[in-house]
Amino acid sequence: MSQSFDSLDPQNSxxxxxxxxxxxxxxxxxxxxxxxxxxxxxxxxxxxxxxxxPPLAILLxxxxxxxxxxxxxxxxxxxxxxxxxxxxxxxxxxRLFAHRAFEVPGWVRFALVMLGAGCxxxxxxxxxxxxxxxxxxxxxDEDPYTIGKxxxxxxxxxxxxxxxxxxxxxxxxxxxxxxWIKMQHDYYLPxxxxxxxxxPGLVAWACGLGFWPGVLVGGLLRIVLSEHSTFLINSxxxxxxxxxxxxxxxxxxxxxxxxxxxxxxxxxYHHFFQADYRNGVRWYxxxxxxxxxxxxxxxxxxxxxKRVSAAEILKAKIAMEQKRMAxxxxxxxxxxxxxxxxxxSHKRLQELQFQMKAEMKLxxxxxxxxxxxxxxxxxxxxxxxxxxxALAQVEFRNAVAAWQAYARAWRTAIQT
Length: 416
Ligand SMILES: [Zn+2]
Ligand SMILES: [Zn+2]
Description:
The protein is mainly α and 416 residues long. It is built from 14 helices and no strands. It folds into two domains: 42-307, no CATH class; 353-416. 63% of the residues lie in helices and 0% in strands. Helix 2 (72-98) crosses helix 4 (124-136). The longest helix is centred in the last third of the chain and has 84 residues, at 332-415. The protein is elongated. Bound molecules: zinc ion (2 copies). One zinc ion binds at residues 94, 98-99, 131, 135, 270, 274.
Protein backbone atom coordinates (compact mmCIF):
# COMPACT_ATOMS: atom_id res chain seq x y z
CA MET A 1 0.00 0.00 0.00
CA SER A 2 1.57 3.28 -1.04
CA GLN A 3 1.70 6.08 1.44
CA SER A 4 2.36 9.74 0.81
CA PHE A 5 4.16 11.54 3.56
CA ASP A 6 1.88 14.55 3.41
CA SER A 7 -0.66 12.23 4.96
CA LEU A 8 1.56 12.08 8.00
CA ASP A 9 1.87 15.82 8.30
CA PRO A 10 -1.44 17.62 8.84
CA GLN A 11 0.28 21.01 8.82
CA ASN A 12 1.67 20.65 5.31
CA SER A 13 -1.13 20.49 2.80
CA UNK A 14 -0.80 23.51 0.53
CA UNK A 15 -2.58 22.51 -2.70
CA UNK A 16 -1.09 25.36 -4.72
CA UNK A 17 2.43 23.94 -4.64
CA UNK A 18 3.39 21.68 -7.52
CA UNK A 19 5.42 18.52 -7.09
CA UNK A 20 8.76 20.20 -7.63
CA UNK A 21 8.20 23.07 -5.19
CA UNK A 22 6.35 21.09 -2.48
CA UNK A 23 8.25 20.58 0.77
CA UNK A 24 9.61 17.06 1.02
CA UNK A 25 7.08 16.23 3.74
CA UNK A 26 4.33 16.69 1.13
CA UNK A 27 5.77 14.32 -1.43
CA UNK A 28 5.90 10.57 -1.75
CA UNK A 29 9.08 8.88 -0.61
CA UNK A 30 11.34 7.77 -3.42
CA UNK A 31 14.97 6.79 -3.73
CA UNK A 32 15.66 10.31 -4.97
CA UNK A 33 14.34 12.10 -1.92
CA UNK A 34 14.57 9.64 0.98
CA UNK A 35 17.42 11.62 2.55
CA UNK A 36 15.06 14.59 2.96
CA UNK A 37 12.45 12.60 4.86
CA UNK A 38 11.59 14.32 8.22
CA UNK A 39 13.24 11.66 10.37
CA UNK A 40 13.04 13.96 13.42
CA UNK A 41 9.29 13.49 13.42
CA UNK A 42 9.43 9.69 13.55
CA UNK A 43 8.12 8.16 16.78
CA UNK A 44 10.98 5.69 17.03
CA UNK A 45 9.76 3.68 20.01
CA UNK A 46 6.33 3.11 18.50
CA UNK A 47 7.65 2.65 14.94
CA UNK A 48 10.30 0.08 15.87
CA UNK A 49 7.84 -1.84 18.06
CA UNK A 50 5.11 -1.90 15.39
CA UNK A 51 7.45 -2.82 12.54
CA UNK A 52 9.65 -5.34 14.37
CA UNK A 53 7.10 -7.30 16.44
CA PRO A 54 5.04 -8.93 13.60
CA PRO A 55 8.00 -10.57 11.76
CA LEU A 56 9.65 -11.36 15.10
CA ALA A 57 6.47 -13.10 16.33
CA ILE A 58 6.28 -15.19 13.14
CA LEU A 59 10.00 -16.03 13.22
CA LEU A 60 10.19 -16.99 16.91
CA UNK A 61 6.93 -18.96 16.82
CA UNK A 62 8.13 -20.87 13.73
CA UNK A 63 11.48 -21.62 15.41
CA UNK A 64 9.69 -22.78 18.56
CA UNK A 65 7.33 -25.05 16.62
CA UNK A 66 10.24 -26.40 14.57
CA UNK A 67 12.18 -27.32 17.73
CA UNK A 68 9.48 -28.22 20.26
CA UNK A 69 6.26 -28.75 18.29
CA UNK A 70 2.85 -27.31 19.15
CA UNK A 71 0.28 -28.41 21.75
CA UNK A 72 -3.40 -27.99 22.56
CA UNK A 73 -2.32 -26.12 25.68
CA UNK A 74 -0.63 -23.45 23.58
CA UNK A 75 -3.69 -23.22 21.32
CA UNK A 76 -5.91 -22.53 24.32
CA UNK A 77 -3.36 -20.06 25.71
CA UNK A 78 -3.40 -18.13 22.42
CA UNK A 79 -7.22 -18.15 22.13
CA UNK A 80 -7.66 -17.21 25.79
CA UNK A 81 -5.06 -14.43 25.88
CA UNK A 82 -6.24 -13.03 22.52
CA UNK A 83 -9.87 -12.94 23.74
CA UNK A 84 -8.95 -11.29 27.05
CA UNK A 85 -6.63 -8.82 25.33
CA UNK A 86 -9.28 -7.74 22.81
CA UNK A 87 -11.96 -7.44 25.48
CA UNK A 88 -9.64 -5.32 27.67
CA UNK A 89 -9.47 -2.85 24.78
CA UNK A 90 -13.08 -3.00 23.57
CA UNK A 91 -14.78 -3.21 26.99
CA UNK A 92 -12.22 -1.15 28.94
CA UNK A 93 -10.29 1.35 26.83
CA UNK A 94 -13.05 1.87 24.25
CA ARG A 95 -16.58 1.58 25.63
CA LEU A 96 -15.86 2.33 29.31
CA PHE A 97 -13.04 4.89 29.34
CA ALA A 98 -13.32 6.61 25.94
CA HIS A 99 -17.16 6.60 25.77
CA ARG A 100 -18.37 6.16 29.38
CA ALA A 101 -21.10 3.82 28.08
CA PHE A 102 -21.47 2.25 31.56
CA GLU A 103 -20.02 2.42 35.06
CA VAL A 104 -17.98 -0.09 37.05
CA PRO A 105 -16.90 -0.50 40.68
CA GLY A 106 -13.37 0.66 41.62
CA TRP A 107 -11.76 -2.79 41.59
CA VAL A 108 -13.01 -3.55 38.04
CA ARG A 109 -11.72 -0.16 36.89
CA PHE A 110 -8.33 -0.97 38.43
CA ALA A 111 -8.17 -4.39 36.74
CA LEU A 112 -9.20 -3.02 33.32
CA VAL A 113 -6.62 -0.22 33.47
CA MET A 114 -3.70 -2.30 34.74
CA LEU A 115 -4.31 -5.38 32.58
CA GLY A 116 -5.22 -3.15 29.59
CA ALA A 117 -1.66 -1.77 29.63
CA GLY A 118 -0.48 -5.26 28.61
CA CYS A 119 -2.18 -4.92 25.19
CA UNK A 120 0.60 -2.49 24.19
CA UNK A 121 -1.76 0.04 22.60
CA UNK A 122 -0.44 2.95 24.66
CA UNK A 123 -1.71 4.43 27.89
CA UNK A 124 -5.43 4.56 28.56
CA UNK A 125 -5.23 8.37 28.70
CA UNK A 126 -3.56 8.69 25.29
CA UNK A 127 -5.77 6.03 23.68
CA UNK A 128 -8.95 7.75 24.92
CA UNK A 129 -7.65 11.17 23.88
CA UNK A 130 -7.00 9.96 20.33
CA UNK A 131 -10.31 8.14 20.19
CA UNK A 132 -12.48 11.00 21.45
CA UNK A 133 -10.73 13.29 18.99
CA UNK A 134 -11.41 10.75 16.22
CA UNK A 135 -15.15 10.88 16.99
CA UNK A 136 -15.25 14.66 17.39
CA UNK A 137 -13.48 15.55 14.13
CA UNK A 138 -13.85 12.29 12.17
CA UNK A 139 -12.43 12.28 8.61
CA UNK A 140 -10.90 15.75 8.98
CA ASP A 141 -7.19 16.58 9.10
CA GLU A 142 -7.49 16.85 12.88
CA ASP A 143 -8.70 13.22 13.12
CA PRO A 144 -5.61 11.35 14.41
CA TYR A 145 -6.33 8.29 12.25
CA THR A 146 -8.41 9.75 9.45
CA ILE A 147 -9.12 7.36 6.60
CA GLY A 148 -8.82 10.38 4.30
CA LYS A 149 -5.03 9.89 4.44
CA UNK A 150 -5.28 6.30 3.23
CA UNK A 151 -5.88 2.77 4.53
CA UNK A 152 -2.28 2.29 5.65
CA UNK A 153 -2.24 5.60 7.56
CA UNK A 154 -5.51 4.79 9.38
CA UNK A 155 -4.35 1.25 10.16
CA UNK A 156 -0.83 1.84 11.44
CA UNK A 157 0.89 4.80 9.70
CA UNK A 158 -0.45 7.40 12.15
CA UNK A 159 1.45 5.74 15.00
CA UNK A 160 4.80 5.84 13.21
CA UNK A 161 5.08 9.62 13.51
CA UNK A 162 4.85 11.89 16.57
CA UNK A 163 1.46 13.37 17.47
CA UNK A 164 1.07 16.85 16.02
CA UNK A 165 -1.68 17.85 18.44
CA UNK A 166 -0.15 17.96 21.93
CA UNK A 167 -3.00 20.20 23.14
CA UNK A 168 -5.46 17.35 22.69
CA UNK A 169 -5.41 16.42 26.42
CA UNK A 170 -8.43 18.70 26.71
CA UNK A 171 -10.52 15.81 25.40
CA UNK A 172 -10.11 13.78 28.61
CA UNK A 173 -10.53 16.02 31.70
CA UNK A 174 -12.58 13.31 33.42
CA UNK A 175 -9.89 10.63 32.95
CA UNK A 176 -6.89 12.83 33.73
CA UNK A 177 -7.93 12.99 37.40
CA UNK A 178 -8.55 9.26 37.82
CA UNK A 179 -5.83 7.88 40.11
CA TRP A 180 -5.49 4.46 38.43
CA ILE A 181 -5.42 5.97 34.94
CA LYS A 182 -2.84 8.53 36.09
CA MET A 183 -0.74 5.80 37.69
CA GLN A 184 -0.90 3.65 34.53
CA HIS A 185 0.11 6.70 32.44
CA ASP A 186 3.06 7.59 34.71
CA TYR A 187 4.41 4.04 35.11
CA TYR A 188 3.22 2.61 31.80
CA LEU A 189 6.25 0.56 30.75
CA PRO A 190 6.76 -1.54 33.93
CA UNK A 191 2.99 -2.13 34.23
CA UNK A 192 2.70 -3.06 30.54
CA UNK A 193 5.70 -5.42 30.71
CA UNK A 194 4.23 -7.16 33.76
CA UNK A 195 0.66 -7.47 32.37
CA UNK A 196 1.65 -8.11 28.76
CA UNK A 197 4.65 -10.44 29.04
CA UNK A 198 5.32 -11.69 32.58
CA UNK A 199 1.71 -12.48 33.51
CA PRO A 200 1.02 -14.73 30.46
CA GLY A 201 4.39 -16.39 31.13
CA LEU A 202 3.42 -17.09 34.75
CA VAL A 203 -0.03 -18.40 33.75
CA ALA A 204 1.54 -20.73 31.17
CA TRP A 205 4.13 -21.88 33.72
CA ALA A 206 1.37 -22.58 36.29
CA CYS A 207 -0.48 -24.63 33.62
CA GLY A 208 2.63 -26.67 32.90
CA LEU A 209 3.33 -25.11 29.48
CA GLY A 210 6.53 -23.38 30.56
CA PHE A 211 7.30 -19.70 31.24
CA TRP A 212 9.02 -18.79 27.94
CA PRO A 213 6.47 -20.48 25.64
CA GLY A 214 3.88 -18.43 27.60
CA VAL A 215 5.81 -15.20 26.96
CA LEU A 216 6.10 -16.05 23.26
CA VAL A 217 2.50 -17.17 22.57
CA GLY A 218 0.48 -15.34 25.28
CA GLY A 219 2.76 -12.30 25.06
CA LEU A 220 4.40 -11.50 21.72
CA LEU A 221 2.14 -13.41 19.29
CA ARG A 222 -1.05 -12.39 21.12
CA ILE A 223 -0.01 -8.70 21.23
CA VAL A 224 0.60 -8.59 17.46
CA LEU A 225 -2.71 -10.32 16.61
CA SER A 226 -4.73 -8.27 19.08
CA GLU A 227 -3.20 -4.97 17.95
CA HIS A 228 -4.07 -5.60 14.31
CA SER A 229 -7.60 -6.63 15.28
CA THR A 230 -8.01 -3.18 16.90
CA PHE A 231 -6.29 -1.39 14.01
CA LEU A 232 -8.84 -2.88 11.59
CA ILE A 233 -11.52 -0.71 13.25
CA ASN A 234 -9.72 2.45 12.14
CA SER A 235 -8.91 1.16 8.66
CA UNK A 236 -11.31 -1.54 7.38
CA UNK A 237 -14.34 -0.39 9.42
CA UNK A 238 -13.96 3.02 7.74
CA UNK A 239 -13.64 1.47 4.27
CA UNK A 240 -15.78 -1.66 3.74
CA UNK A 241 -19.47 -2.09 4.50
CA UNK A 242 -22.83 -0.35 4.58
CA UNK A 243 -23.94 2.95 6.05
CA UNK A 244 -27.43 2.32 7.43
CA UNK A 245 -27.43 5.19 9.94
CA UNK A 246 -25.40 8.02 8.44
CA UNK A 247 -23.34 8.88 5.37
CA UNK A 248 -21.95 12.03 6.95
CA UNK A 249 -18.75 10.16 7.89
CA UNK A 250 -16.80 7.21 6.53
CA UNK A 251 -17.69 4.70 9.29
CA UNK A 252 -19.21 1.40 8.05
CA UNK A 253 -21.27 -1.47 9.42
CA UNK A 254 -19.71 -4.80 8.49
CA UNK A 255 -20.57 -8.16 10.09
CA UNK A 256 -17.32 -9.75 8.97
CA UNK A 257 -15.28 -6.96 10.59
CA UNK A 258 -17.44 -7.41 13.70
CA UNK A 259 -16.21 -11.02 13.92
CA UNK A 260 -12.57 -9.91 13.61
CA UNK A 261 -12.94 -7.02 16.07
CA UNK A 262 -15.14 -8.44 18.84
CA UNK A 263 -18.23 -6.49 17.76
CA UNK A 264 -16.63 -3.16 16.89
CA UNK A 265 -17.31 -3.73 13.17
CA UNK A 266 -20.78 -2.17 13.52
CA UNK A 267 -18.93 1.09 13.28
CA UNK A 268 -21.52 3.16 11.40
CA TYR A 269 -23.97 2.62 14.26
CA HIS A 270 -21.20 3.37 16.76
CA HIS A 271 -20.31 6.69 15.15
CA PHE A 272 -24.00 7.71 15.18
CA PHE A 273 -24.80 6.52 18.72
CA GLN A 274 -21.36 6.47 20.36
CA ALA A 275 -22.55 6.40 23.99
CA ASP A 276 -24.51 3.12 23.53
CA TYR A 277 -22.77 0.22 25.29
CA ARG A 278 -23.69 -1.92 22.27
CA ASN A 279 -22.31 -1.65 18.73
CA GLY A 280 -24.31 -4.53 17.24
CA VAL A 281 -27.76 -3.60 18.56
CA ARG A 282 -29.79 -6.53 17.26
CA TRP A 283 -29.65 -9.67 19.40
CA TYR A 284 -28.14 -11.72 16.57
CA UNK A 285 -25.42 -9.21 15.68
CA UNK A 286 -21.99 -10.53 16.68
CA UNK A 287 -20.85 -8.27 19.52
CA UNK A 288 -19.02 -10.24 22.26
CA UNK A 289 -18.11 -6.91 23.87
CA UNK A 290 -21.78 -6.05 24.54
CA UNK A 291 -22.43 -9.61 25.83
CA UNK A 292 -19.44 -9.28 28.18
CA UNK A 293 -20.64 -5.90 29.51
CA UNK A 294 -24.18 -7.27 29.98
CA UNK A 295 -22.82 -10.34 31.82
CA UNK A 296 -20.70 -8.05 33.99
CA UNK A 297 -23.86 -6.10 34.89
CA UNK A 298 -25.62 -9.33 35.92
CA UNK A 299 -22.63 -10.21 38.13
CA UNK A 300 -22.60 -6.74 39.74
CA UNK A 301 -19.38 -5.75 37.90
CA UNK A 302 -21.07 -3.05 35.78
CA UNK A 303 -24.08 -0.73 36.13
CA UNK A 304 -25.98 2.06 34.37
CA UNK A 305 -25.53 0.57 30.87
CA LYS A 306 -26.45 3.27 28.32
CA ARG A 307 -28.87 2.17 25.60
CA VAL A 308 -30.45 4.11 22.74
CA SER A 309 -34.18 3.28 22.43
CA ALA A 310 -35.30 1.01 19.61
CA ALA A 311 -37.56 3.79 18.27
CA GLU A 312 -34.64 6.26 18.03
CA ILE A 313 -32.53 3.68 16.20
CA LEU A 314 -35.37 2.96 13.78
CA LYS A 315 -35.91 6.67 13.14
CA ALA A 316 -32.21 7.15 12.32
CA LYS A 317 -32.40 4.25 9.86
CA ILE A 318 -35.57 5.61 8.25
CA ALA A 319 -34.02 9.09 7.88
CA MET A 320 -31.04 7.55 6.06
CA GLU A 321 -33.36 5.45 3.89
CA GLN A 322 -35.36 8.55 3.00
CA LYS A 323 -32.18 10.32 1.91
CA ARG A 324 -31.19 7.39 -0.32
CA MET A 325 -34.67 6.94 -1.84
CA ALA A 326 -35.01 10.67 -2.52
CA UNK A 327 -31.61 10.67 -4.23
CA UNK A 328 -32.84 7.83 -6.49
CA UNK A 329 -35.96 9.70 -7.55
CA UNK A 330 -38.63 8.74 -5.00
CA UNK A 331 -41.23 11.43 -4.33
CA UNK A 332 -39.82 13.75 -1.70
CA UNK A 333 -43.31 14.94 -0.61
CA UNK A 334 -44.63 11.39 -0.19
CA UNK A 335 -41.53 10.30 1.77
CA UNK A 336 -41.69 13.40 3.97
CA UNK A 337 -45.42 12.88 4.64
CA UNK A 338 -44.80 9.27 5.70
CA UNK A 339 -41.87 10.29 7.86
CA UNK A 340 -43.85 13.14 9.43
CA UNK A 341 -46.49 10.57 10.38
CA UNK A 342 -43.82 8.41 12.05
CA UNK A 343 -42.39 11.46 13.86
CA UNK A 344 -45.87 12.56 15.04
CA SER A 345 -46.84 9.10 16.29
CA HIS A 346 -43.49 8.71 18.06
CA LYS A 347 -43.89 12.14 19.68
CA ARG A 348 -47.37 11.14 20.89
CA LEU A 349 -45.97 7.84 22.19
CA GLN A 350 -43.21 9.67 24.04
CA GLU A 351 -45.74 12.09 25.59
CA LEU A 352 -47.86 9.17 26.75
CA GLN A 353 -44.79 7.37 28.11
CA PHE A 354 -43.88 10.54 29.99
CA GLN A 355 -47.42 10.80 31.39
CA MET A 356 -47.38 7.13 32.31
CA LYS A 357 -44.11 7.57 34.20
CA ALA A 358 -45.50 10.59 36.06
CA GLU A 359 -48.68 8.62 36.88
CA MET A 360 -46.64 5.67 38.17
CA LYS A 361 -44.58 8.03 40.32
CA LEU A 362 -47.79 9.57 41.70
CA UNK A 363 -49.21 6.15 42.47
CA UNK A 364 -46.06 5.11 44.29
CA UNK A 365 -46.11 8.41 46.21
CA UNK A 366 -49.82 7.95 47.06
CA UNK A 367 -49.21 4.41 48.25
CA UNK A 368 -46.35 5.67 50.42
CA UNK A 369 -48.60 8.48 51.77
CA UNK A 370 -51.39 6.00 52.55
CA UNK A 371 -48.89 3.79 54.34
CA UNK A 372 -47.59 6.81 56.27
CA UNK A 373 -51.13 7.84 57.33
CA UNK A 374 -52.07 4.28 58.31
CA UNK A 375 -48.87 3.98 60.29
CA UNK A 376 -49.52 7.28 62.06
CA UNK A 377 -53.08 6.11 62.88
CA UNK A 378 -51.77 2.82 64.22
CA UNK A 379 -49.19 4.67 66.29
CA UNK A 380 -51.90 6.96 67.75
CA UNK A 381 -54.05 3.92 68.61
CA UNK A 382 -51.07 2.26 70.18
CA UNK A 383 -50.29 5.35 72.31
CA UNK A 384 -53.95 5.52 73.39
CA UNK A 385 -53.88 1.88 74.34
CA UNK A 386 -50.71 2.35 76.34
CA UNK A 387 -52.22 5.30 78.20
CA UNK A 388 -55.38 3.25 78.97
CA UNK A 389 -53.21 0.38 80.16
CA ALA A 390 -51.26 2.72 82.45
CA LEU A 391 -54.57 4.01 83.85
CA ALA A 392 -55.88 0.47 84.32
CA GLN A 393 -52.69 -0.47 86.11
CA VAL A 394 -53.04 2.52 88.45
CA GLU A 395 -56.71 1.58 89.04
CA PHE A 396 -55.70 -2.04 89.73
CA ARG A 397 -53.04 -0.96 92.22
CA ASN A 398 -55.50 1.44 93.87
CA ALA A 399 -58.15 -1.31 94.07
CA VAL A 400 -55.67 -3.70 95.67
CA ALA A 401 -54.55 -0.98 98.09
CA ALA A 402 -58.21 -0.28 98.97
CA TRP A 403 -58.78 -4.00 99.57
CA GLN A 404 -55.72 -4.24 101.72
CA ALA A 405 -56.75 -1.12 103.70
CA TYR A 406 -60.26 -2.53 104.28
CA ALA A 407 -58.87 -5.95 105.24
CA ARG A 408 -56.48 -4.35 107.70
CA ALA A 409 -59.24 -2.21 109.20
CA TRP A 410 -61.57 -5.26 109.48
CA ARG A 411 -58.90 -7.37 111.14
CA THR A 412 -58.25 -4.55 113.68
CA ALA A 413 -62.01 -4.23 114.32
CA ILE A 414 -62.58 -7.91 115.08
CA GLN A 415 -59.57 -8.11 117.38
CA THR A 416 -60.88 -5.30 119.55
ZN1 LIG B 1 -14.18 5.34 13.72
ZN1 LIG C 1 -15.61 4.84 19.62
